[in-house]
Amino acid sequence: MEGQGSEVLMVRQPIFDRNLKIISYQLRYQYSEYIEDSLFDPETEGSMLVMHTFTSLFQDGHINKVPVFLPFPSSMLQEGSSLALPRKEIVIEVHPDITVTEEVVSHLRMLSKQGYRIALDGFSMQPHLIPLIKLVNIIKIDFSLMHRAKIKKLVATLNKAKKTALAQNVDDFETLQFCKKVGFKLFQGGFISRPVKVLGKDVPGNSAALMQLLQQLQRPDITPSEIEELIIMDPKLSFKILKVVNSAAYQQNRSIDSMQQAVVILGHDQIRKWATLITLASNPDKPEELARNLLVRGRMCELLAESSESLQQDSAFMVGMISQLDILIDVEMEEILRQIPLDEKIKFAISDYEGELGELLEVVIAFENADWDQVQASAFGKEFFEVAYRHSLHWAEQAMAALVDGE
Hints:
Helices cover 50% and strands 13% of the residues. The protein has an 8-stranded mixed sheet. Strands 3-4 form a two-stranded antiparallel ribbon. The chain has helices at 33-39, 45-54, 74-79, 102-113, 148-160, 173-182, 205-217, 224-232, 235-245, 259-266, 268-280, 288-306, 313-322, 325-329, 333-339, 344-352, 355-368, 372-376, 382-405; strands spanning 10-16, 22-29, 56-59, 62-65, 68-72, 90-94, 117-123, 138-142, 164-168, 186-187. The protein folds into 2 domains: 10-193, TIM Barrel; 205-405, Orthogonal Bundle (Hypothetical protein af1432), CATH 1.10.3210.
């Protein structure tokens, strides 16, 4: 892996509007004294990394910039000094455990007058936070701390006061629907990574063709000529593969003009990987963030495997990609693993986190969830995670752009 990394572990998590479009990212980072100096000084590497990497988003066919919700240490809100970070690219997030003093209120008022947006995190009607409501723009309501009846009343009150209510810790689509109904405008939580529950084991009609293609692509005995025939039968898939492998995401030294040429140059495993990737990332009925998650997780597993002599990169990529297939097509993972002829090591890694591939998948998911203790307890060095994640974000944006260009 190329590129120098920061010493700070950081991950971004999406914040959605009512149409499940990403309007911002939540930045999670591993706290240390170094992080304050790194993130909040616009001249430092950590701050530049946030502004250049974590605010970039490919969505609806275009690369855009979205702000990041940046948690501020309480000590910084006591100081009263001006902030030099760009106003449009950050939302100042105030922790609910903050001690509200006259200095804090004065500092937040100053930041608001300077044009910064301010979010109050984890609000559940704590008395000490009430004085801050009039100073903030966004109020994050924690579903794990309040009853739904109280949440409904609180959201109505905040909407009347022209405060943006953000539903925090929304863990499933049923909760998401409730949030929309009671008037939340923004949404954050694990619902995007949870499969929708379906009755029975039948594969939905719009996913049947996808499953059939995956079944063929993952056959251990499939030959390069059979892969080529499968892809050529779908002109759209064939065109997209050629677009992607010629894009910046793959960095080919020469133009690849035919599927036969692609198979010869890239090889059996790489063509199968890209055909699988494009097939999984091309579901128009799901939010773009699902496709992005598939790409980032698969690529990150692959890059971490690259640093380990005992792990196969292609298998690691497939573990990352297939591990979220149930979310993409609303089919139980047990049924997916039964139908698609994957290597047993891949199946056990996905179903039970078994073996080295399972441990790899588990720690990548821990990284996505900002579980820094589990990340640091893993066999992979801290520096590998930071570089692999940053590279994977960039690679996924390039791949998604190539996919759209191939429409």
